[in-house]
Each structure stands twice: as C-alpha cells, then as structure tokens.
Amino acid sequence: MAPFDLVHPRSTDEALAELRTASPEGVAVLAGGTDLLLDIDRARIAPRRVVSLRYLPWKFLEWSGDSLTIGSTLPLRALEVEPRIRQRIPGLWEAVRAVGSVALRHRATLGGNLVRSAPTSDLSPILLALDAEVEVVGPHGSRWTPVDAFLSDSRRPRLAFGELVRAVRIPEARPSAYHWQRVRPVNDISQVGVAVARSPSEGYYRIAVGDVLPRPVRILPAEEALRSRPPTDDEVRSAAELAGKLSPFATDRRGTEEYRRHIVAVLARRALLAIRTAAPRGPAP
Amino acid sequence: MTTAPSFTVNATSVDLSPIPESERLLDTLRWRLGLKGTKEGCRTGNCGACTVLVDRASVLSCLTLAHEVAGSEVTTIEGLAAEDVGARIMQSFADEGASQCGYCTPGFVMALASLLHERGAAGDLAGFEEDLQGNLCRCTGYVSIRRAAQRAREAVR
Question: B39 contacts in A (CB within 8 Å)?
Fold first, then answer.
C-alpha cells in the first residue's frame, strides 16, 4: 500500500481544519476503512494524508419517538444487534445484514457507505425507501439533506470538499423490507437489491431499486400503483411489474438487463407482500 | 510517516519501533510480531482468514490499519488458545474434524469466539450460522465446521 500520513483529529472542528489545509486529491477520510483501504491498496487513489474519524463522538444511536438518528461512524454491527431496529425498521436490519460479514460490519459504517456511494450499496436503497436524511457538517455549519438529493448520478455524493457526514436520520420507523439477489449469499455484490417501506402515518409506499447504474433510485410509478389501503393483489403485481420495467439497468458481469428486470419484479412483489399487512411492531422507546 | 502505535496483543503491550502509518494490522502481526497464526488469504476482506479480535470483536486485519487500533486490545489465535473459550472452540474443531488443510481454521475460531463473546450461547442457531458465513473454507464443505460451531456453543453455555 502506498504510504500516507494518518491523522486523528479529536473534534469536529479539528477534522474540518485538517480538510481545509489539504488538497482534494491529496486527502482521504477514513471511517471504517473497509472500502477505502481497498482503493488505496489497488492504487485507484493515492492520498498523501488520511484523516481518521475514529475519535469523533459520532458513534451514537438516538431514538426520539418514532425517529432514529444514527451517528455516521457507528459500526454497522451496532445497528444489527439493537433489537428495536429489527423490530421497528426491519428493512434496515435486513439491509445491514446484507453488507459483507460480521467481522467487516464490526468496522464498516453507515456514513462511510453513503459517502463512498458505490452504485451497488445495499444500504442506499433502504435509506431511500425510509426517506432518510443526511447531516452534513462543513465550514459553514450543519445542514440536513434528503438521501435522494445526497446521492448523485456521478457515483459521488453531493458533498463539497471540506464537508463531512455526521449523522443519518430516519424520520419514522416503518414496516419495511430489503430483498437482494446474488451469485453467492455472503461477501458478494448484489446483482439487484429492492427496498420497500410503508409509512404507517400516511399509508404511502416507497420502492427503491439498487445495483443499477449509477445510483439507486425510487420507482415512482410503481409506488403510485399501490392505491388501495392495503393494496390489492392486482396492485402489488402491477407495481412489481412496473418496478422491473422502469428501473434503469446495466448489463455487466454480474447480470444481464433482462435477468435484472425479471429479478427486480420478483423481489419487489415478495417484499411488498411481506410488508402489506405488517403492523408497525413494538412500542416507541 | 512512521510512528510507534501503542496497543496490546494477547494481553501484552507491544513494544514496536516506528512503523508506517499505512501499515495493515495483518502485516504488523505476522511480520513484525511473528504471530503467523493469523493468515493472509484474499487481502480484500472476502475470506475471513485474517480475522482477529479487537476489543473482543472480530475484525478483518487485512482491512484495518495498525494505527487505528491504538489503545485497543488485540487478540490473535495464539492468545485465544490460552483462554478457556478459545481452548473449548479449538477442541470442538478437533473433535469434529473441522480442520483439513487448516488455513481457514484460525479465522473461523476467532469469528466464533467473537460471536460467543457477543451473545453467549443465546440466539437462534440459524442466525448463528449465518454469522459465520464470512469465513471461507475450500476443504471441508462446511458440514464439520457447522457441527464444531454448535459443539463449541454448547461447551461454552
């Protein structure tokens, strides 16, 4: 691995100051490192300075009624072993379990996953379905932006140089599901991933599809096909078919467009049926 | 830059001369500390052969910088062997013939130790086995490893 200097800021201000004094190509931000270090090792990037977020107080998990705020550097495994997430936001639990292995999730973080913005992220689709928001901190303070606006078509998030992601907020616990298809079940990249969620307060559905290039997207016409409360079998079938038909698709070594469209429709139907009559589980903590 | 990180390995503080800040924990353990029980498999976080414990939780030492575990307790297969849980897991692997070429075995043992530490023997077996899927074995076909994991779980209960 090409050598670099590793710095450990102790506060948000110190971390932002580290970024201000560096050039964009010369610096990289380290959260869990499970993706970044691979890129450095393969010489895809060659930062001279790596800013570790290890000592920032961002490893938190805060419930406020039905809303959950997740610190960006909290290891993913902490989300998995928190029983209220499995009970109340099952789609998030399923998506977290889909990332790498336990040992990887002991270090990998939600913030790192979002900022690295891999088109194949298993977490972005469920964050879209949950209407999650991202807190960005920078020289001008803090701002909240919807995940949908944070992700971009360029495979990079809408994060200016010198900004960091501090937290992700899920505004309400929702019946939700994340279904994926892979060649191998673990430590493989999904061929497609489908996230669905239903707002218990408003009744509307969200359907998001990932592992399509260049970013996960919501399929609005499929969401709109679910008119009845709860949706009928016919509505679920046509929403799933629309999701397969309307997703943008890539053909690559993991699958053809035809295969992906078929699997999206199958997974969307299964996921919708899984949450159609599910009651929000568990009391607000 | 090269600086000397400060952490403990197998309950002993390591006394390292300065090492590059870009060095992986895997390389520090194997080549500077001579702890060759931790294996290098894929070096990309896919096979689990390099699994060690950092503060009792399994991590992939190929994707962890040595300087990122400063202040932590690192446990390798050599240190785990001296602990009751480690001895029971290893005995279970021996009893079930769960090790053939043996290259993946330390990683499996560390992953299992982390799970047993994290949730004891509680939890459903299906989830437990799923949690071991991050370790690859090309010899056994996994059946004997699943039996060994179950046996170790019962032995630790």
Answer: none
Name the closest residue on chain A to residue B110, using Cα atoms: A103
The C-alpha of A180 sits at a distance from chain B's nearest C-alpha, in angstroms, of 16
Q: Pick A5-52's CATH classification: 2.40.10, 3.40.50, 3.40.1350, 3.30.43.
A: 3.30.43
Parts of chain A with a pLDDT under 70: 280-285
Task: Burial-class residue A160 by CB neighbours within 10 Å (0-12, 13-18, 19+).
Answer: exposed
Decide if B122 touches A, using CB distance below 8 A.
no
Contact call for B59 and A106, based on CB within 8 A: yes
Is B60 in contact with A1 (Cβ distance < 8 A)? no
Residue A200 — φ and ψ, nearest 5°? -70, -25
Which among A77, A97, A104 has the least Cβ separation from residue B60?
A104
The CA distance from A193 to A209, in Å, is: 6
Q: B47-78 pLDDT, tens per residue?
A: 999 999 999 999 999 999 999 999 999 999 99
Q: Which CATH number fits domain A176-276: 3.30.390.50, 3.30.420.10, 1.10.1780.10, 3.40.50.2300?
A: 3.30.390.50
Nearest to A267 by CA among A203, A207, A205, A199: A207
Binning pLDDT at 50, 70 and 90, where does residue B125 land?
low
Topology of domain A61-170, CATH: 3.30.465
